[in-house]
Design a protein that fits this description.
heterodimer; B: mainly beta; seven-stranded mixed beta sheet
Chain lengths: 107, 120
């Protein structure tokens, strides 16, 4: 099973600042990594797939990078609605599909 | 517009059974793989099962294998999850999720979730 480790667990920033979230895989997942955003009381929503492709309707301030075992989600300039929990997920070797434990982005 | 609407959650005793449903609309349901993902209270996301679109192959993690059964009715555009031998650790919000493309198993649409509570 591929384990995904996200860091930091919590990231405290202000609107307008740049956010950098990390996801590290226990073995190579090539580029088969996705990122999700989850706001309180809501279902997750897909932000990035295949490491660097924005999902439909996702603003350009969200970008993903990386391959192999190290991945980054960057939010270039935080908007108030971006404060949420972010999860990474791999589909390279499955079953099982695995998720990271999440990074909470707080104001 | 893609819509996924789960139902069937509730309070169930340990050892009991429950069937969740997910009514899908806004896309050609039969051609997409579908999945269930759960989230225990205050915890992260856990993949529960996937069923293929064209071949109906099914996949499970070890945590639910042999207890849960995923199925689909393409004539009714509905996904199901039969959960048997339920345990306290199965308590979670269960989300129905559409797989983005073929067996590219990431999830581009999610339902609002249905809460399952396993407790005596």
């Amino acid at each position: 099973e591929i384990v995904l480790t996200q860091s930091p667990a919590t990231l405290s920033l202000s609107p307008g600042e740049r956010a950098t979230l990390s996801c590290r895989a226990s073995q190579s997942v090539s580029s088969y990594l996705a990122w999700y955003q989850q706001k309180p009381g809501q279902a997750p929503s897909l932000l990035i797939y295949d490491a660097s492709n924005r999902a439909t309707g996702i603003p350009a301030r969200f970008s993903g990078s990386g391959s192999g075992t190290d991945f980054t989600l960057t939010i270039s300039s935080l908007e108030p609605e971006d404060f949420a929990v972010y999860y990474c997920q791999q589909r390279s070797v499955w079953p099982p599909i695995t998720f990271g434990q999440g990074t909470r982005l707080e104001i | 517009e893609v819509q996924l609407l789960e139902s069937g959650g509730g309070l169930i005793q340990p050892g009991g059974s429950l069937r969740l449903s997910c009514a899908a609309s806004g896309f050609t349901f039969s051609t997409y793989a579908m999945s269930w993902v759960r989230q225990a209270p205050g915890k992260g996301l856990e993949w529960v099962s996937t069923i293929g679109g064209s071949d109906d192959r099914t996949y499970y993690p070890d945590s639910v294998k042999g207890r849960f059964i995923i199925s689909r009715d393409d004539s009714e555009n509905t996904l199901y999850l039969q959960m048997n031998s339920l345990r306290g650790e199965d308590t979670a919000v269960y989300y129905c999720a559409k797989v983005r493309r073929a067996y590219d198993v990431d999830f581009d649409h999610w339902g609002q979730g249905t809460l399952v509570t396993v407790s005596s």
